[in-house]
Amino acid sequence: MYKSMRSRSDVCFDIINITLLSIVLIVVLYPLIFVVSASFSNPLAVLEGKVVLLPVDFSLRAYEAVLKNNDILTGYKNTIIYTVVGTAVNLIMTIFGAYPLSRKDFIGRQQLTVFFMITMFFSGGLIPSYLVNTKLGLNNNFWVMIIPGAISVWNMFIMKSYFQSSIPDELEEAAFIDGASNICILIKIVLPLSTPIIAVLTMYYGVGHWNSYFTALIYFRDRAKYPLQLILREILVIHDMGEMTEGEVTASQELVAEGIKYAVIVVASLPVLLMYPFLQRYFVKGVMLGAIKG
Amino acid sequence: MGKSSLSKNVGTFRERGMKINFQAYRKNFDLYLLMLPVVLYFIIFKYWPMYGIQIAFKDYIATKGIWGSNWVGLKHFLRFFRSYHFGLVIKNTLGISIYQLVAGFPIPIILALMMNELQFPRFKKLIQTVTYAPHFLSTVVLVGMLTTMLSPRSGIVNGILKVLGMEPVYFMGEPGWFKTIYVFSDIWQNAGWNSVIYMATLAGIDQQLYEAAIVDGATKFQRIRHITLPGILPTAITLLILNTGKIMNVGFEKVYLMQNGLNLMSSEVISTYVYKAGLVGAEYSFSTAVDLFNSVINCLLLITVNRISRKTTDTSLW
């Protein structure tokens, strides 16, 4: 209905806007397309720089090599375990902390909030944490991937403010009068009404576990426990650092290493990118909740 | 926050609970049980390490333990301040942060403004989907993409340079390129995601304002300047405070992956230095001192920036 009122400058604006956004689209999309195309191309063609946009000399050799690589398979399996167990522990702990804090009749909530908040601004730092974890026997232990990062204060506060703003007190009160216990109210009333926030936090925690490598780098000496990201680091990053400095890699070795890289990137990112469309509708909500501070 | 007036009049059981304290304790016994593991977690994994910070002022020896090691005062801090690395890591840390803030902070805002003005919902959806996606790639994958695509022998970027008749550049090994690659790959990865919060803020601006402005004959630029920009300003300032508070804090993960022997001059930052001194070099006390110095500066910065912002713009974190 405003069309008739649009001035020439507005039309101009739209044209420039669409052009610029199309450029943004290409800039962001191109590297992603390139990686996928290169992964499906003949490794030799990739190495010679023949792949520009679409796969050249379509081949699944790289994927075959990835699926035969035991390091990658073990890393994959480990990462799935760390992600599933870790996210489950994260969610349980976050709910355990957030629900009591959301209740006005929970005495001590202000004090506890301060107690938690301090850790957002100040921490013991790398070495003191390392000493504590080592003392607890977590060094080179499976659980180091799960327990030291069991809860994020920020996410707990996000969940707490969701409970406070989205679940009517009356509902809990009614259940309470009917004789339901707090835990019963939490499980039967609060949690079923909180799917959006649970989805958002599952995504945050899950992606975090899937993508992290720092904890594993510090604590694991056992290759059998390495998560995927550490294996990726060896294949994608460390291998390449020798370039130009030592540069004594034979051509065939390089071919194998180079050819496999793009397929590895695709395989490693696939689970997260597959979940992405399903989670996208929760993004705005999640970010907004994060913006409203506890 | 945002309780309806109805519940205020009736008085919810949450509010009434405040008045009858001990009954509340008993009634909420199970809530304390829920809270117990969480509190234990924070004591063990957050507060216990804080106790360990004292080794920054001691010569930590594992067999003597944290408490038993000898006090040495500010020895480790002075050693850090006097070392050749001090100037280098501070310069690099600040250099990367400021570069990132200046180049990276406005882009999500501009992106959100542009997307907000788009008339075609499908194109808008497409742009959003694509620009958010790289956020979910891991740091290892991102740096892996950088090293392969920028590789002097087989990378596509140098391939293009060769076609144009230029000398190949070893981007990842050139100290002069480090910060630029770091900052712009971060923008590529996160600008879209960082625009989500501005998109959400923009969606909250009263549409009637725009309609009134159109009736008054305001052009698109005028509408953006007088309605949209003031609308997102508080969000932008809050994020600016947060980012400025983190200016001495360059994350470990990406820098460490991008580091190599050749670019160390411009890639060694505080967090990587702490890691190398502490865990690789096993100088626990020294590393803790560097870390503590950084933590204290970060805290002071955040408090200062927040105070300035509260005075000048009325927007603050607390």
Task: Explain what you see.
The complex is a heterodimer of chains A (294) and B (318). With 294 residues, chain A is an all-alpha fold. Chain A has two domains: 3-60; 63-291, MetI-like (MetI-like fold), CATH 1.10.3720. Chain A has helices spanning 8-39, 43-47, 61-68, 70-102, 109-121, 126-135, 153-166, 169-177, 182-190, 195-211, 214-219, 228-241, 251-291. Chain A is globular. The model of chain A is unreliable at 242-248 (pLDDT under 50). With 318 residues, chain B is mostly helical. Chain B has two domains: 13-71, no CATH class; 75-313, MetI-like fold (Orthogonal Bundle), CATH 1.10.3720. Chain B has helices at residues 5-10, 13-19, 21-27, 29-52, 65-68, 75-82, 84-104, 106-116, 121-132, 139-149, 156-163, 175-203, 207-215, 220-245, 252-258, 264-267, 270-280, 284-313; strands at 58-59, 70-71. The radius of gyration of chain B is 26 Å and the shape is globular. Mean pLDDT of chain B is 87; it is low at 1-11.
